[in-house]
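Supplementary Text 2. Reproducibility record for the structural model of the 397-residue chain.

All settings were left at their defaults, and a single model was retained for analysis rather than an ensemble. We include the record here because the model underlies the residue-level annotations in Supplementary Table 4.
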Amino acid sequence: MGPAGSADPAGSASSADSAGSTAPASTASSASPSPAATGPPSPKNKTRPAWLPPKNRAEDERHLAEFQRMMLRSQRADRKKRERDQRLVVDAERQRAADAELWAGAVMPRLAEAVATPLVRQLVARSGVPDRLRHRVWPLLIGNALDVDAAACAAACAAARAAPEVARAIDRDVAALLPGLGLFQAGKPLHDVVVGVLWAAAAFRPAGHQRAAADLAGTLLLHLDAADVFAALLNLMDGPGGRPLYEPDGGHRQAFHAAFERAFARHLPELYRHLRGLGLTPADYLDPLVLPLFARHLPPDTAARVWDGLLLDRLAGARPPRRPLFRPAAAELAPFEAGLVAAALAVLAHHGPRLLGDAPGVRAAVGWDAPALAFGAGPAGAAAEVVFLRSIAGFGP
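Retained model, structure tokens:
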């Protein structure tokens, strides 16, 4: 016998049958259908499941026509979006091809003088530096204010040895360096090169090794000759434009954080209030973006395009006419730092609602261990990258 208060429906039915019950058969079907009851639409209706009472024919045909119109609108919208994406990508590719001819004909023959001209700024803003020219253009944009000797660089990288704790930190950072490319991890083609550069940089730099150094060195190795990477890395982090940002105990980074928060509150007020309400500070979501110059959070090709603009802004004397980004003057940002702010806001805006969760979710999206953005494959992905790059200008001064 079952528990008290329970009944066996099959047993009850058998008892009723044996007692000669005359209850009509329709009684059993009057119960509500199980939530698990599913099936195709009723043979009488094309827009209502079989377990529900049928609609009248006119209502069913009207609803079917509405559904078909809705599907047609959705298909037309999808087709128009694909066409827009395709046009955007084709136009961007044509612009890059035209700009590449200008680089070859008007810029490269007099590169040293041309890098600070309005023409180069226009070319970089439209389509960046052509991939095949970055090994010549970037060293000029970064400069060598520290007067690092090339022969000394090679000797330092070959002879450098790091203290055990520094070596462990470098190995940790190199293991996580652009994993999708498979170029820097142990046993890969550029592993020994990047480790040598980082060991030497840790010995030369007053601040020693910093986590962002691996990301910077890896990006430089993708685009520069290996012999130029050590000098470029030192000048990038300790030269006039970078040193205030990378000084671990300096007050400049705090001032930069404060300036960023003012821009954040102005451009993305809802997201700013949310992150502030979670108790997060720019050290949690801004430093992982800007200290590696976005190399951790953007695909390598996209990061290189962002670097084109940032390095041009960083070039000594390349200060185009523009109003200051922040007032008062003590809080004003140089063009390089203003570019960092604009690119960081573009990344945060691209994540959008994904940052409106809890603090661990925010760190998972834009923290030090977050994966790079994925724009997707095909024309839709290429169009999304173009839209992202163009959006950076919208967060500028």
